[in-house]
Amino acid sequence: MKKIGRRKFLASASAGLGVLGLGLARGESPNFSGQVVELMIPFKEGGGSDTWGRFNATFFSRYLPGQPTVIVRNVPGGNSIAGSNRFAARARPNGLSVLGTSASTQFPYLLQDPRVNYEYRDWQVLMASGAGGVAYVSSNLGVANIAELGSVIDKELLYGSQGPTSLDLVPVLGFKLLGLNVRPIFGMSGRGAGRLAFERGEVNIDYQTTTAYLRNVVPLIDQGNAVPLFSWGALNDSGELIRDPTFPNLPHFAEAYEILHGEKPSGLGWESWFAFFTAGFPAMKLLVAPKETPIEIVSAYQDAVISMKKDPEYIARKPAALGTYEQVTGPAAQKLYELATDVPQQARNWIRQWLRDEFQVNIEV
Amino acid sequence: MVEALLSALANLATLQHILHLVLGVMLGLAIGAFPGLGGIAGLSIMVPFLYGMDTVSALATLVGLVAVIPTSDTFTSILMGIPGSSASQATVLDGFPLAQKGEASRALSAAFSASLMGGIVGAIILTLFVQVARPLILTFGSAELFMLALLGLSMVGVLSGASLVKGISACGLGLILGSIGGAPATGEFRMTFGIDYFYDGLPLIIVGIGLFAFPEITELLRKNRPIAAGGLLAGKWFDGIRDVFKNWFLCLRCAGIGTLIGAIPGLGGSVVDWIAYGHVVQTAKDKSQFGKGDIRGVLAPESANNAKEGGGLVPTLLFGIPGSGAMAVFLGGMVLLGIEAGPAMVSTNLDLTYTIIWSLALANIIGAGSCIFLARPISRLTAIPFNFLAPFMIMVISFAAFQATRQFMDLIALLGIGILGIALKRFGWSRPAFLIGFVLAPQAEGYLNLAVQFYSWNMFARPGVLIIFGITVASVWFSSRGRGRNTENIILPVDGSSGTAQSSDRTPQMLFLIGSITTLSYAIWSSQQLSPLGSMFPFWVALGTMVLCIYQLLSLKFGSIDNPVNFDLENHTSDPTRGSIISNAGWFAVLIAITGLVGFQFGVLFFFMIFLKLKANQNWRITIALSITALAIISSLANLLIVELPTGLLSQYINLPWFLGQG
Questions:
Q1: Residue B320: which of A72, A187, A192 has the nearest Cβ?
Q2: Which residues on chain A are in Cβ contact (under 8 Å) with B644?
């Protein structure tokens, strides 16, 4: 930022009072030169979403027309509900304010939490990216893989969860569908805290998203303290569950189900799990703008995503910063957007009922 | 290991590394000196530059930045009584009274020397400790962490002032205020009144500033005199350095405490300064000057809070779990640089770990060293007539509060907590005890919930739990030793006031108690709407505190006048030169109200004009010159550091350029 002198500042201050709108007239090709794009992250500084936002901000700043300053604005609160509500209420469709949401933003929306005042249908997607995860157990259980887990299927396993309605509902429901006797311990302050509890021996089953798994769990496996069970899996182009390309040797969730139950998963419970899994993992992070944002601006963002992925620095730094999953734009992002923000009504109802029966959690409408 | 040590030394000794470290240190000092800004604001500025730097240089800049923030935030804590960050709240207790005695430069140089020592001791401990840290940290389960939170709460014993009952009640109110927002176990929202702002609870920085700085500024406005009484500056900066040498063992102990508490993930660094402060009060023979300007009350928290950053590196580097906000930012920076925190940091990347640890020590030397030289010139601020300083301080405080969550509600919360702070001070309820309760509420509750789910009553069979419990009992015994025997010497006049302030008119105190009881009843009632896990903690805390409040109410109604509960600063001294509380605290409201209408920048401009003209009776030339200066300071700050300022209703109707605030 250049320093603004007092006189110049006062001049622009008085000018600013008179000017109504700096927005872009329709039809012009956008130029953000000298402007500031605000990338709102509804989470605290330093977390996964923040890192994602800051990593991308640098490259948007480089590839958006006019090379605007892109700043990350953290508005944490209520597990991203507060910031997203604020964005919904205030963002203008001028390309200068965009929001980065995560599965924690999508889940309360899907569950129709009454505190949610944002509507994904009022937004459009500029970029989307996913993540995966791997479930693992303590080696104290004496099992070497998912098939052997059947021998200790009745043993009570403990899992450190961030809360019944958080993204952790995917693993908790997943374990239940597999027939495991898992008791979730609520109140972990994050996935990191869950992993720490695992290392302390307080819990004996856990999962981590891909980057954290590679960084912190693989060393535990090498030391013989942890045993990987399965990955959640990934989606292929036709939306079917396949093995996670990062973990080709691990069965995906449906394979794990088949190993334990001897049949392919089916039924409402499975369909509900699958719907929430897709919303939570393959479509974990979304970059959105208000729906009225002109098509020219949306294209400018899409072009920026395409260009940034060719940047040698992006290519060099992305795996360590964001993991192995692709960031996509255009129709591919649109597809993930729909998966993330629209689940069948009956899956929604089933999950709400399950939360009520299992954990006495009532999401009022 | 020797190889890693040598390789780290080689990394450290390059000119390029040291230059980047100095760059980070200077940036950190500048940002840290401004209350409300910390590592987070620093990172926002840094990140764009991290690209294109090589890893070692970028890391050096990051470490330099993070290391010195708890150093320079001491300036406002001592000079103005504004806790610059959560790490230096305890410093205010004795630092600000020292400044009021005119000994600001001594207090500052003592604080910086202590910081320097803390930083170095922390690095030495870490060098030895880092190899064995992993298994050691893993012995701290949720039950042990809960006991540590209790140990922190036990410090209330020495910070209670004349009446222990009042101290514990203050802590209870703090715990209740701290449990506003999402319940740790279930995520249920408690006492939020359906307002988004309360989802994550009240921000610590606002509670700290509201409790300590707000009442002091109001008090100074009423007296209208320079911070240093009579405008006289005594105390030499060299004395401060001598103080550290004289109390070297205390600084060493507090640095050790800081490193260890910082290293335990999950307890959070914000309580370190209070534990260190509690420790010095417990162990000191002569307690009579604490809270009135005892230099040891500055040395203890300052040597602990720099050491804490070193300790905080351990969980950050070894487990990828940041212990504090600044460490979360540091970790974020590391991720962007492609350095993977995890077990590898003590095996293949051990040299990198040592480089980081020693860079931290070096940054502390450079940072604290340059601050010591600034101590003397900057302490002259305390000799300025308060009518000139006050509007700047009110501006700074409002700015700092707004940086907490960057919503207008931050300012409203500041006003609310500030008024609470005035009441607590007036009626002799220990504000430190309140703050400790507030800080530890989430930890105490969260780990209690986890411990109950994991172990139930078996937690008391764990050796770690028993050891920490033993330390807690010893600490309570230390602090209660002699209480009631020789009150003048033992009781800590926490708020810089005399130990007793009996009043014949007890109505205001009773009204405050009735207000507290009503609030607690609401907390009890609302907890009944929650699941058992979500309601357990607020229910029992509120119930216990309510019993104590009712006891106080009865003592006031039926007890004698020299009952220790009886305390009212306003009716105790009748000083006709003091203005009213309401009209002076009202100046905060003036700034906030104008800001709400036209945004912060115009708010500051108009507020300065009104204040200087009406309150300070200055002529138009000075008024306009100072008002424009203030506007220029706040605007260039916002633009240079890309920080957001509050917007007003005006911006909803007119599309202002972004640096004047957008919707």
A1: A192
A2: 73
